[in-house]
């Protein structure tokens, strides 16, 4: 729903701004190119905004004829148009007082120009051109010619363009594949792959002013805060990654010439900071398929969790992925182990006391011992939570692992500890206080609160909720952040805040003699805000892996932060040896310190309406070149 909302909102925002800025003029006109079955005219007419404006719509003749028939068959629409009976003359399929529907191929510019002249289009009055996901389907030479024709033939004109961008990153590859399968390739993307290229395109084709935003920036900067909050609370929602990635792959552009005053509908409202420029890159990290795990379909999943329970043994649980040939919430546990340098995996159906085990995403799994791990929280759907805590019990010897060797037990929580389990997208981290082991549950979200900023100290192993003093500035509430144990405390990095904006802050919950203290970790340059990443600490360096950010010119790779100096370096991931797009969000990762490697398991998710992409195989990232002393 949100993906379609933002498209309509962007077009309406720009169109209504044009009508407002020209309301004192005697006549204006709107020319919608490739209008399809768009209802824009009828919405504007019903709102009383077309007192001195004529709307012209153009599309292929068969589409225009179908739309004309539809309008005539609905009396409410016919009444709004006020049919003058001028249709049926050549390419004119419908003609009303302030609405003209034309059947012309946009690539035939001379015919388009003749037909527009016949139907009364006036080149001398202010004209708004609209091309909403249209030009990208045309041959680029023809769409360029159309843009230039509009600039050359209309002295006072505005152009509104909405379409796709960033074809080569992982989400963009999935997007392109989707449109190729529909035999509707996105032709403009080869020459105009980003917003900067589109900006240069219009300035080079005769337009004197141009501004462009991707849809993350538009939502943040051009939609009032109260409307943002309304949209965010309309329905139970948890597809943040899908939403933000979709928005980073569409843009809205507003170009103009000869307009007095200038037409600037994409000027940010209020004082909200818009998104910064490109991210500096210090180098690259090679990625390769982990051969021993490449044929395990159950590892294609997202929203799962993986934990190293003892050297060379990893447990992966939960999430949504492939099981028994179907996409579903994964119930089975996967035990990954390495022998003589080679990885293998065993799929185990656990002994489960009830069905709640297999119905959770975005939970946490924490190692308590070689044979025991704790599962905290998670959800089945955004409105179905309260899954509690579970013990995972593993066999003493892993070599003979088989079905039934992993058992699951429900944790009978004390009332004070129940709130710690009623959340998802949180973190659970091992800490030490006065020589005792605790699990620190922080942040996340719940069915009632979209963002949580509270925390709980659970004393292991009985999981009693313990009050421990915490001082210092309290971090902003967040979910989908990362958390790592470090020097008896916890490092919290990034996450998604209350306004659904990625956060770039890093906090250390530092152990003191009498309790803990929140401290801010300053980095230089500042950490690029992100969420849905994973994190690890190695020899005083914090490693942030993947995630989602709003800098659409690149995707997050591996960021290395020196916790002593604050130096923050970003590394891209070299995927030349992968045959599929690597999506590093909703994944899990395990750091292997001896080899200085990261094993990335799963990741991906739904790609808006373009289908589901799950990373098909676990991947090893070799960090040896960036972790040298």
Describe the model.
By secondary structure, the chain is α+β, with helices and mostly antiparallel strands. It has two domains: 1-257, Vaccinia Virus protein VP39 (Rossmann fold, 3-Layer(aba) Sandwich); 281-627, Neuraminidase. The chain contains twelve helices and 38 strands. The strands form eight sheets. Strands 3-4-2-1-5-6-8-7 form an eight-stranded mixed β-sheet, sandwiched between helices. The longest helix has 20 residues, at 2-21. The chain is elongated and about 85 Å long. The two termini are 49 Å apart.
What layout of secondary structure does this protein have?
Layout: H1 2-21, E1 28-33, H2 40-46, E2 53-59, H3 61-72, H4 75-81, E3 92-95, E4 99-103, H5 109-118, E5 127-132, H6 140-153, E6 157-164, H7 170-181, H8 195-204, E7 209-214, H9 215-222, H10 225-232, H11 240-248, E8 250-257, E9 283-289, E10 301-302, E11 305-310, E12 313-317, E13 320-323, E14 326-329, E15 333-339, E16 342-348, E17 364-369, E18 372-376, E19 389-393, E20 407-410, H12 418-421, E21 427-433, E22 436-442, E23 455-459, E24 464-466, E25 470-471, E26 482-486, E27 489-493, E28 506-511, E29 516-520, E30 534-538, E31 541-545, E32 558-562, E33 568-574, E34 588-592, E35 597-601, E36 604-606, E37 612-614, E38 619-622
Parallel strand pairs: 1-2, 1-5, 2-4, 5-6, 9-33, 25-29
Antiparallel strand pairs: 3-4, 6-8, 7-8, 9-38, 10-13, 11-12, 12-15, 13-14, 15-16, 17-18, 18-19, 19-20, 21-22, 22-23, 23-24, 26-27, 27-28, 28-29, 30-31, 31-32, 32-33, 34-35, 35-38, 36-37
């Amino acid at each position: 729903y949100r993906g379609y909302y933002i498209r309509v909102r962007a077009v309406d925002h720009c169109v209504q701004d044009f009508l407002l800025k020209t309301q004192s003029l005697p006549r204006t006109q709107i020319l919608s190119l490739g209008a399809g079955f768009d209802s824009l005219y009828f919405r504007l007419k019903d709102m009383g905004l077309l007192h001195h404006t004529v709307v012209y719509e153009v599309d292929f003749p068969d589409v225009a004829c179908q739309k004309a028939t539809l309008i005539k068959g609905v009396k409410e629409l016919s009444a709004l148009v006020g049919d003058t009976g001028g249709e049926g003359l050549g390419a004119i399929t419908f003609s009303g007082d302030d609405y003209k529907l034309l059947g012309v191929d946009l690539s035939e510019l001379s015919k388009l120009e003749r037909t527009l002249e016949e139907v009364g289009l006036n080149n001398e009055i202010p004209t708004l051109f609209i091309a909403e996901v249209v030009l990208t389907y045309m041959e680029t030479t023809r769409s360029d010619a159309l843009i230039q024709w509009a600039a050359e033939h209309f002295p006072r004109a505005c152009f509104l363009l909405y379409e796709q961008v960033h074809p080569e990153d992982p989400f963009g590859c999935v997007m392109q594949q989707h449109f190729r399968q529909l035999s509707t390739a996105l032709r403009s993307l080869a020459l105009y792959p980003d917003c900067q290229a589109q900006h240069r395109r219009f300035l080079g084709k005769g337009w004197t002013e141009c501004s462009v935003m991707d849809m993350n920036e538009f939502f943040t900067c051009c939609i009032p805060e109260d409307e943002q909050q309304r949209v965010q609370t309309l329905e139970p929602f948890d597809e943040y990654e899908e939403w933000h990635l979709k928005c980073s792959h569409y843009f809205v552009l507003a170009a103009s010439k000869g307009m007095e005053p200038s037409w600037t509908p994409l000027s940010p409202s209020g004082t909200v900071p818009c998104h910064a420029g490109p991210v500096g890159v210090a180098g690259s990290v090679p990625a390769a398929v982990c051969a021993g795990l490449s044929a395990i379909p159950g590892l294609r999943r997202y929203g799962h969790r993986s934990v190293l329970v003892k050297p060379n043994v990893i447990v992966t649980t939960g999430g949504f992925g492939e099981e028994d040939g179907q996409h579903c919430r994964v119930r089975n546990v996967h035990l990954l182990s390495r022998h003589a340098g080679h990885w293998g995996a065993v799929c185990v159906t656990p002994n489960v006391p009830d069905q709640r085990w297999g119905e959770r995403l975005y939970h946490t799994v924490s190692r308590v011992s070689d044979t025991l791990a704790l599962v905290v929280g998670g959800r089945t759907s955004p409105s179905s939570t309260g899954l509690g805590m579970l013990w995972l019990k593993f066999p003493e010897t892993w070599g003979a692992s088989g079905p039934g060797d992993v058992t699951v037990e429900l944790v009978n929580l004390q009332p004070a500890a129940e709130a710690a389990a009623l959340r998802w997208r949180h973190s659970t981290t091992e800490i030490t206080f006065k020589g005792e082991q605790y699990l620190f549950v922080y942040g996340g979200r719940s069915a009632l609160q979209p963002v949580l900023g509270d925390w709980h100290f659970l004393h292991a192993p009985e999981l009693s909720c313990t009050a421990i003093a915490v001082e210092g500035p309290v971090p902003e509430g967040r979910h989908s952040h990362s958390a790592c144990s470090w020097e008896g405390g916890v490092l919290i990095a990034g996450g998604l805040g209350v306004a659904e904006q990625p956060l770039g802050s890093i906090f250390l919950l530092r152990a003191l003699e009498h309790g803990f203290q929140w401290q801010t970790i300053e980095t230089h340059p500042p950490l690029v805000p992100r969420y849905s990443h994973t994190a690890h600490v190695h020899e005083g360096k914090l490693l942030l892996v993947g995630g989602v950010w709003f800098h659409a010119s690149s995707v997050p790779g591996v960021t290395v932060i020196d916790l002593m100096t604050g130096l923050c370096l970003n590394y891209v991931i070299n995927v030349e040896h992968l045959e599929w797009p690597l999506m590093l969000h909703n994944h899990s990762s395990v750091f292997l310190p001896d080899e200085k490697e990261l094993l990335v398991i799963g990741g991906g998710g739904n790609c808006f309406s373009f289908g589901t992409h799950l990373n098909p195989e676990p991947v090893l990232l070799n960090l040896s070149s960036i972790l040298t002393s």
